[in-house]
Amino acid sequence: MTGLEVIAADRIDSWAGKPGVVLIDLRTEEEFRKGHIQGAVNLPYEELEEGRRPSRGKILVLYCERGAASLAMGRELAEEGYQVKSVAGGLRAYRGSLLTRRN
Length: 103
Fold this sequence. Notes:
The chain has five helices and seven strands; from the N terminus they run βαβαββαβαβαβ. The protein has helices at 12-15, 29-34, 45-49, 68-79, 90-93, and strands at residues 3-8, 21-25, 35-37, 41-42, 59-63, 83-88, 99-101. 28% of the residues are buried.
């Protein structure tokens, strides 16, 4: 099954660490270092735009700072056959316990 689903930020915790799921932070490496959701991998939007792609066969949960980039990339990946969840409101909307912050 492929496609795109937009999920609320409070649902990230239910997907993080689940087998067969990859949580992808689309922000820059510098933004990722300042804070991200535990267990997420950093795959910047620009790299995906240039053609880099994650492995197939897993559910991709994408987030960015506010949600616009993850929705745009989610649509593109879904058209390519990936199963994608895009986080509405992005990291700014997330209030869960898995957030790491560094100054």
